[in-house]
Design brief:
CATH architecture: Up-down Bundle
Structural class: mainly alpha
Distance between the termini: 35 Å
CATH topology: Growth Hormone, Chain: A
Helix content: over 70%
C-alpha cells in the first residue's frame, strides 16, 4: 500500500494511514474465520444439542439489535471510537479466557457467549464508520480495504480446521484467544495512525437532519428490512453447514476448503466491486445479489455432499456476501451522511446482522430439527426472495440526493 493523504486511490494505491486498518480487518475476520465454522462444533463437543446451539447463536445475534446503538451513541457523545473498540476486543479476550472454566451446560455457556456478543458489537460498526470517513467521496473503493478481512478469514478457516482436526476441537478457544490478543495490540497501532477525526468520531459534518427523520424514510426502511431478511436467510448456512457436512462423513479439512472457496470468491468480488459500483446503482446490485441468494440456498438444500453443487453454491458467495456488503456500505453512507454515519452503521448492523441473524439462527435451528436441510434452505430462499421484492418496490425520493451515484434513475 502506498499513496498520500487520507483517501484511497481508485487505482488501488492507498495512503500509509490505511495499512493499520487493513491489518485490523484481517485480524478481526480471522477471529470470525476461527469461530463461524467451528463454534457450533465446539458447542456440540461441550454437550449442547442442535436446537440449543441454534438458540445460543440466535440469542447472541439478537443482542445486535440493541448493543450497536448503545455503543454508537456512546462513541458519538464521547468522541472515543477507538477506545471503545479496544474495550470491546479486551472484553472478548476475557470471555474466551473464561470459556473453558465454566460447566458443560446450556446456561453457563450461553451467558458467556452472550456477554461476548454484547461487547464484540462495539468493534465492527465503529471500524466501518472510521473506514468510510477516511475514504470520503471514494467510498466505492471500500472493497479494496475490506478484502484484507476476507484474506484473514481464509487463513483462519483453513488453519483452525487443520489444527483442531489434529489436536481436538477443545483447542478452538486458545486459537481465538491468541487472535484476539493480536487484535488488541493492533488497536494501539490504529490509534497512532494519522487518521485524524475519523478515528475519534469528532469533527464530522454538522447535523442538518435528525437521525430519526432519516430512518423514517420509506427507502431507508425498505433497505433495513431487506437487510434483515437477507441476513436471516444465511442462518441455516452459518449454523449448520459444517455440522451437516461432517455428519455426512466429510472431513473437517474438506469442509474448511469449501468455506475458503466462498471467501476466495468474495475477495475477488471486493477487488472488482468499485468498478461495478461506479457504473450500476447500489440498490440494483443489491436486488441482483438477493436473486442470486435464492438460487444459492436452493442449491444448498438439494446438494447434500454433492461436491459439484456445493462448489457452485459457494462461488455464489462472491455475490451474496462480497458484492452485497460493498453495495450496502455505499447505501449506508448515502442514507446516513456526515455525523449520522456511525449511528447509521450501527442501525444497519443491528437490524441486518442482529435482528436478521437472530431470526435466521433460531428459525433455522427449529426448521432444520423438524424438517431437515431442504426445508431450512427452502425457507431461507423464501426469505431472501421477499427481501428482493421489498427493496425493488421502494425508491429514495429525497430531492437533494436525487442524482447520487448509488441511486441513479
Amino acid at each position: 500500500m502506498a499513496g498520500n493523504g487520507g483517501d484511497l486511490s481508485v487505482n488501488g494505491a492507498s495512503p500509509p494511514s490505511l495499512m493499520p486498518l487493513a491489518a485490523f480487518y484481517a485480524l478481526f475476520f480471522a477471529v470470525a474465520g476461527a469461530l463461524m465454522p467451528y463454534l457450533p462444533v465446539y458447542l456440540q463437543y461441550r454437550g449442547l444439542s442442535l436446537a440449543e446451539i441454534g438458540l445460543v447463536l440466535g440469542l447472541g445475534m439478537l443482542l445486535k439489535v440493541l448493543a450497536p446503538h448503545l455503543w454508537a451513541v456512546l462513541a458519538e457523545r464521547s468522541g472515543q471510537r477507538m477506545r471503545l473498540v479496544r474495550l470491546g476486543v479486551l472484553a472478548g479476550l476475557l470471555v474466551f479466557i473464561l470459556l473453558p472454566l465454566v460447566p458443560d451446560a446450556f446456561w453457563p455457556l450461553a451467558a458467556l457467549l452472550l456477554a461476548y456478543q454484547f461487547v464484540w458489537n462495539a468493534v465492527l460498526p465503529q471500524l466501518e464508520a472510521v473506514t468510510l470517513n477516511i475514504l470520503g467521496a471514494k467510498a466505492a473503493a471500500y472493497g479494496r480495504i475490506r478484502l484484507w478481512g476476507s484474506i484473514g478469514f481464509v487463513i483462519a478457516v483453513l488453519g483452525t480446521g487443520v489444527f483442531t482436526e489434529q489436536v481436538g476441537i477443545e483447542w478452538l478457544v486458545p486459537v481465538v484467544g491468541v487472535l484476539m490478543l493480536a487484535l488488541f495490540v493492533q488497536c494501539a497501532t490504529i490509534a497512532e495512525a494519522r487518521t485524524g477525526n475519523a478515528i475519534s468520531g469528532a469533527g464530522e459534518a454538522s447535523r442538518t437532519t435528525r437521525f430519526r427523520v432519516l430512518v423514517a424514510q420509506p427507502a431507508v426502511i425498505a433497505f433495513l428490512v431487506s437487510a434483515a431478511l437477507m441476513q436471516a436467510s444465511h442462518g441455516p448456512y452459518y449454523v449448520f453447514f459444517t455440522l451437516h457436512l461432517e455428519s455426512l462423513g466429510m472431513l473437517r479439512t474438506h469442509v474448511a476448503l469449501l468455506w475458503i472457496l466462498g471467501v476466495l470468491a468474495e475477495i475477488v468480488m471486493f477487488a472488482v466491486a468499485p468498478r461495478l459500483l461506479s457504473s450500476v446503482s447500489a440498490r440494483r446490485l443489491l436486488v441482483l445479489c438477493m436473486l442470486v441468494a435464492v438460487v444459492r440456498w436452493l442449491l444448498m438444500g438439494i446438494a447434500g455432499d454433492n461436491v459439484a453443487l456445493l462448489v457452485v453454491a459457494q462461488l455464489c458467495h462472491a455475490v451474496t456476501f462480497g458484492l452485497y456488503h460493498a453495495a450496502s456500505m455505499q447505501l449506508v453512507r448515502f442514507y446516513f451522511p456526515g455525523a449520522h454515519l456511525g449511528r447509521g452503521q450501527a442501525m444497519y448492523a443491528s437490524i441486518g446482522f442482529g435482528l436478521g441473524g437472530a431470526l435466521g439462527s433460531t428459525s433455522g435451528g427449529f426448521i432444520w430439527t423438524h424438517g431437515g436441510p431442504l426445508a431450512a434452505y427452502s425457507a431461507a430462499a423464501g426469505m431472501v426472495a421477499l427481501a428482493a421484492v421489498v427493496l425493488a418496490c421502494v425508491r429514495y425520493r429525497g430531492a437533494a440526493l436525487e442524482h447520487a451515484p448509488t441511486e441513479r434513475r
